[in-house]
Specification:
335 residues, alpha+beta, conserved putative lor/sdh protein from methanococcus maripaludis s2 fold, Four Helix Bundle (Hemerythrin (Met), subunit A), four-stranded antiparallel sheet, 4 helices, elongated, disordered N terminus
């Protein structure tokens, strides 16, 4: 009888758990409806764009040629300064002491040289003594000049008018020769730098004018450098285009450059619509009022567009910038 009672209790518990599970499933809150916008599934006017970053054509990594302690930092990130403005000063106490000693030695050498010159005028010294005194004075003078030059290196000044992009040290830090102290850029001349494939590079040439877009603003640039297939792994090169009207643009901004003469072939999606789950790539499609996760087979990226080999049909509503959207979540498409 004991085994039978245990079986009955086990069945009762199992039935209770099953009922509880059904109740919890039925009480699970539904996913909220979200508003989404659709992404274009083909390039703008069929044009091909490549991603680019806005950089300064004139930049400098400021360092020092001596070992010293940072005394004062006078420039901060984002600060605009004129050429020659003091940015940072290093401790120079030991150099100042050496300079005083060298100046004292120079004064003594020059005084000795004057005495020898006076004696030489009276025929009371030899030419060799005059030559030796002159050499000693010149040597002492060179030592003073060298120390003054070293002291000047403790005053780090702006090499040209521009903006402090980054500060690498703080007051009190000990720095050594060649150590980066400040990143400095000039905002007067800007260029767009992009990575291009061999096919994209064939449609471009140095001196050619290209269209670009940065932070919602469009403009025109001129190709200044082109190195197709420079990377042995990706077989992609570097494109540099000088911005013809840089007013209002900021260094570090991201944009895109249109490759003239080339068009996207077949169906493609923007990178902003892509969903990554490990090694899988896909998009969310708005279908019957819900978001449907669709895994895709993609081709090689063409600028900021991704060619679709399989998994998507022309005309399907691809959701742009899905964020944390869930599969099956109700959606409302914004116009």
């Amino acid at each position: 009888m004991m085994p039978l009672r245990l079986t009955v209790i086990a069945l009762t518990l199992a039935a209770g758990l099953a009922c509880g599970k059904k109740e919890s499933l039925s009480e699970a809150p539904a996913l909220p409806q979200v508003k989404v916008r659709l992404a274009p599934t083909s390039g703008e006017d069929g044009a091909l764009w490549v991603a680019a970053s806005l950089q300064s054509t004139r930049s400098a990594t400021i360092s020092t040629r001596m070992a010293a302690q940072v005394r004062r930092v006078l420039a901060q990130e984002g600060q605009r300064v004129q050429a020659g403005a003091l940015l940072l000063s290093l401790s120079d106490d030991d150099l100042q002491g050496q300079l005083k000693a060298a100046e004292t030695g120079l004064a003594a050498a020059e005084a000795y040289l004057r005495r020898v010159q006076n004696l030489q005028a009276l025929k009371a010294s030899t030419p060799a003594e005059l030559e030796q005194a002159t050499a000693q004075a010149e040597q002492a003078r060179g030592g003073v000049v060298a120390l003054k030059a070293q002291i000047a290196y403790t005053q780090i000044r702006a090499p040209f008018s521009g903006t402090v992009q980054a500060r690498r040290v703080n007051e009190g830090d000990f720095v050594g020769p060649g150590m980066p102290l400040l990143e400095f850029v000039s905002e007067g001349a800007l260029e767009l730098v992009a990575s291009v494939s061999e096919e994209e590079a064939k449609a471009l040439k140095v001196g050619q004018k290209v269209r670009f877009e940065v932070e919602g603003r469009s403009g025109e640039g001129q190709v200044t450098a082109l190195s197709p297939g420079g990377d042995a792994v990706s077989h992609r090169g570097t494109l540099r285009a000088r911005v013809l009207s840089p007013s209002g643009l900021r260094v570090g901004s991201f944009g895109r450059i249109q490759v003239p003469g080339l068009k996207l072939q077949g169906l493609s999606i923007p990178r902003s619509a892509l969903v990554q789950r490990g090694e899988l790539s896909g998009v969310f499609v708005a279908r019957e009022g819900k978001a449907e996760l669709r895994w895709l087979s993609l081709g090689e990226a063409a600028g900021d567009r991704l060619p679709v080999k399989a998994g998507l049909k022309a005309g399907e509503a691809v959701i742009d910038a899905p964020g944390d959207l869930k599969d099956g979540q109700p959606v409302e498409v914004r116009p």
